[in-house]
Amino acid sequence: MKRLHIADTHEVRSGEVTDIYFVRTEEILKVRHLNEHVCMEVFLKSFPDESYRWGVFAGLEEVCTLLEGRPVTVYAVPEGTVFRPKIPVLVIEGNYLEFGEMETAILGCLCQASGISTRASRFRVAAGDKGLLSFGARRIHPSIAPMVERAAYIGGCDGVSTLAGARLIGEKPVGTMPHTLILIVGDTLTATLAFDEIIEKGIPRIALIDTFQDEKFEALRVAEALGDRLHGVRLDTPSSRRGNFRTILEEVRWELDLRGHSKVRLYVSGGLGLEDLLDLSDVVDAFGVGTRISSAATLDFSLDVVEVDGVALAKRGKNSGAKDVLRCTRCTRHMVVPRGTRVRCGCGGETEDMLVTVMEDGVLRAELPPARKIRERSIREVDLLRGARGEREFLGL
Description:
Layout: H1 9-13, H2 20-31, E1 37-44, E2 55-56, H3 60-67, E3 73-76, E4 82-83, E5 90-95, H4 103-127, E6 131-134, H5 145-155, E7 159-160, H6 163-169, H7 179-185, H8 188-198, E8 205-208, H9 215-226, E9 230-235, H10 245-258, E10 265-269, H11 274-280, E11 286-289, H12 291-294, E12 301-308, E13 311-312, E14 323-328, E15 334-338, E16 351-353, E17 356-360, E18 363-364, H13 371-386, H14 391-395
Parallel strand pairs: 6-7, 6-11, 8-9, 9-10, 10-11
Antiparallel strand pairs: 1-5, 1-12, 2-4, 3-5, 3-17, 12-13, 14-15, 14-16, 17-18
Helix pairs in contact: 3-4, 4-5, 4-11, 5-6, 5-13, 7-8, 8-9, 9-10
């Protein structure tokens, strides 16, 4: 049987996906007997566009998988930390030949996972207190779906749709029903009744109501047939609906309420962007967002040498020397200072070290928390950063 076009964990750890110039660099250094002790730091050069105000750090657990067993020391901000550009989020110290071949993979893990978690965080802000579900697995290569869904969950999604993604984060998968089921069964109500009869009782009954008929009448049909068993109705592919999507939702809500079905929740999905969530959050109970999260732009991290054999040394445009990252416990401002420096924030608040020892000599020294705890951190830190600002202002829209 042919295999998917992917590299497995062993191949990645073996350096099979490294850029060729790192292989050639390694060859030169070995011939010249140069294996200097270096300090290298990962920092974000810039965000994907000017609307971004913060990033959510993700991918650390996979970086630890890449470096475990190698004689290196790793410092990092905790996964789920909210950060700004030009702040070191991860530092690696060790002899270069012990880990240099991992640079491509390290950056790949951090850039993509953090890009997705950051985009999901922006959607979390736009959704407010409404539900936010990750539905983007069908828009990415299946082999990376668990990583993508974990990053989306860390950024603020309430649930993910695939079995492997849910297993990775320690949660149950979420989802409703596809148009395919209704098309094969031949009728929205018949398909919903079959779902209600066959699927285990703990799964919410959410009917998809835009396959054949007007959404208002389909909503009423399933609501009257299922009664209190109906948890919600979902409207999909809003861009294909004629008329104003908000008006359609308001009409469905009105008719359901008028007939005693006020507890039936409204779910929407299908090509939703930030503006859609902001415009619909007062009438919708939960959003399913796919492509706009799973295809998020990567964050432009760089991994650069800042010290060689204890001597501060860096390329042009990069501050040399090992550094500490301090954060004010009062105003959350970040400060990058030479390692060992301790300062108070200008607001008078105390500062805390953000970089913690994750690995020493290839052995994990810090606890890697479950996804739920990481998600709680990211949401808490975004809320603290946002303060009293409104959603649009905070999202740069």
